[in-house]
Structures are given as C-alpha cells and as structure tokens.
Structure to design on (337 residues):
C-alpha cells in the first residue's frame, strides 16, 4: 500500500485506570495522551461509554470530551460510542450540540446498542430497547434534533439544533451493519474485541448502503475498524507490555473486573491455558512489535478489508509507555505532526 493509499489513523480511548492509579490520575493521563495525539497528527480521538468499570473511567463521555477539547486544538473528538438505549435522543442531541456550539465542528457522534456494562448496572440506567427497529427510529430522532430547525416542532434540542454533528454507526455484528447501511451512515466495526463477524458485517454494509436515506451522512460506504496496537523499540518489549492487555481480557471474560495489571514475563503462569484460548478472540486483530513491524501489520489489515480508517486501542500499565507507543507509530507512519 502506497503512502497516499494509507487509511486515516484514529484512536479509541476508554480512559483506562491502572492498578495503583486514582480515577483523577487516569483522566489526567488520557488528557496528556490526547495532547500528544493532537500534536502528532492523528485524525480523531474517540471515547467510549462504559459504566461501573474498575478499569475504564469513561462513563460520562461527553464531559470527558469537553475536557479534552479544552486542551487540544485540531484533532477531531467524538463518542465511540454513545450507547443510545441508555439515553434519550433529545438529551444526547443537547449534550453533543452544546459541545459543537462551544468548540465548533470538531465532534463526531458514534452510536451503539450495547449496554456498555453489566445487566444490573444497565437496569439502573433505565435502559430502553436495543432492538434494531427501535434503535434505528431513535437514531432518526437524534438526526432530526441536530438538523435544521423544523417548522412547528414542539420539541427542540437547544443548543444542538442546526449543528449537524456527524453521526456514525458502531457495531460488533451484522445488526449494526444493517442499520448503518439503511441509514446511510459511516460504519465503525469493533474488531478490536469482537472480530468474528468483521468480514460479513462489512459485506452487508457495502451491499445494502443507501446514500439516498434521509439520514445519510456520506455518499458512499465509509468503513473504519478497530485494532489492538502496541509499539515498542523491540518486539520482545512490545509483546511483554501487551500482556497487560491480555490480562485485562481475561478479567473481562471471567467477570473479575479490576484496573489494568502490570505486564508479566510468562503469561501462561498468570492465566490458565483454557482461559487464554477463551480470550484469544479479544486480541486476534492486533499489531504488536517494532514501529516498522506494526506499520506493516496495519497496512495489511487495512488492505485486506479495504478500510478507509483504522481506529487504534492501546493499553499499558504505565501510561507513559502508552504515550510512547503512539509517538513511535506516528513517526513511523509519517503523520504530519
């Protein structure tokens, strides 16, 4: 893949908290990372809604995005995503319309159906329906609230009306792909943790994309996919640091949430073999190694799936090594920072 054919590079941040770190320190670390990404020339930074998590401090996503916007200048910011059944479309339009009113055209609104939490916490959120028809209807309502003023409308998002914050559809299955296609929205697939249906979802999306839909945001199918990345000066160090991410996946799979663990020399001694095989899909889509190795892996993944954009997620116990990973990748990729 030639340099000019490379997809855009973006970043997904769940505001991870490492063991020994306070929530305040985790948010400060993500703010520092956002400033690095802004300076390096990454295209966009998204934050994802999670609730009741010991590891991720991103429950109030819109507040975090407003905080990051105050400390960056250029990078696009957005939700990756807002779990729409957890909220009313009107409130989402007001929150993101307010961000756009304050900071201008820097925000994206990625939308998903998953709860982003456990069943009890989901119930406490007074979660609504996640069925595809209901979800698609609420996306349409949100689109209308953010669009041009409607004659005679009794319910309006103020601020928000007229901001036209770009909508994205997120998904980890063909369901999200169907909604994205029917509504004419750009589509981001969560292959960084659920890669099983990546190819099928992209096929469904591309074959059924409707550029004439009232909610359409793009003229042709536009695809992004997630990938786990860790860059270090040597492959050995990268694989060692990546064990923190693998341990995190094991905790998620076994329902034992905790802040991000330090890396381990021997993963097999820390995680039973049967559990490692159960969590393999969490990191099947990965690019881990030296800067040149990771760039080659990213190019191959993007070319294989004909992606317009890659969205990268990186976890390390030491937040400074996470920042280093993104700096090394930016330098090797040739970002304009």
């Amino acid at each position: 893949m030639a340099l000019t054919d490379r997809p855009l590079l973006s970043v997904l941040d769940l505001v991870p908290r490492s063991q020994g770190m306070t929530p305040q320190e985790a948010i400060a670390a993500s703010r520092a990372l956002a400033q690095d990404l802004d300076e390096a020339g990454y295209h966009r930074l998204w934050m994802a809604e999670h609730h009741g998590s010991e590891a991720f401090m991103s429950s109030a996503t819109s507040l975090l995005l407003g905080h990051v916007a105050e400390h960056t200048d250029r990078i696009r910011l957005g939700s990756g995503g807002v779990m729409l059944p957890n909220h009313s479309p009107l409130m989402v339009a007001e929150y993101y319309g307010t961000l756009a009113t304050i900071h201008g055209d820097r925000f994206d609104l990625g939308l998903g159906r998953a709860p982003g939490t456990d069943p009890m916490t989901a119930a406490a959120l007074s979660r609504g329906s996640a069925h595809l028809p209901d979800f698609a209807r609420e996306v349409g309502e949100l689109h209308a609230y953010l669009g041009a003023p409607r004659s005679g409308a009794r319910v309006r998002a103020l601020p928000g009306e007229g901001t036209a914050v770009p909508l994205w559809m997120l998904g980890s299955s063909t369901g999200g792909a169907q909604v994205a296609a029917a509504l004419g929205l750009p589509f981001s697939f969560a292959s960084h943790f659920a890669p099983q249906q990546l190819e099928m979802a992209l096929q469904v999306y591309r074959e059924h994309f409707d550029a004439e839909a009232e909610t359409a945001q793009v003229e042709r199918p536009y695809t992004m996919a997630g990938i786990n990345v860790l860059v270090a000066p040597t492959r050995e160090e990268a694989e060692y640091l990546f064990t923190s991410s693998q341990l995190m996946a094991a905790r998620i799979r076994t329902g034992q949430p905790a802040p991000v663990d330090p890396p381990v020399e021997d993963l097999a001694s820390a995680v039973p073999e049967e559990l490692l095989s159960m969590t393999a899909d969490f990191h099947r889509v990965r690019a881990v190694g030296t800067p040149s190795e990771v760039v080659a892996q990213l190019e191959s993944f993007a070319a294989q799936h004909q992606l317009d954009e890659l969205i990268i997620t990186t976890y390390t116990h030491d937040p400074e090594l996470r920042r280093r990973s993104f700096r090394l990748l930016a330098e090797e990729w040739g970002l304009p920072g």
The mean pLDDT is 94. The chain is about 45% helix and 15% strand. The chain has one domain: 3-228+307-333.
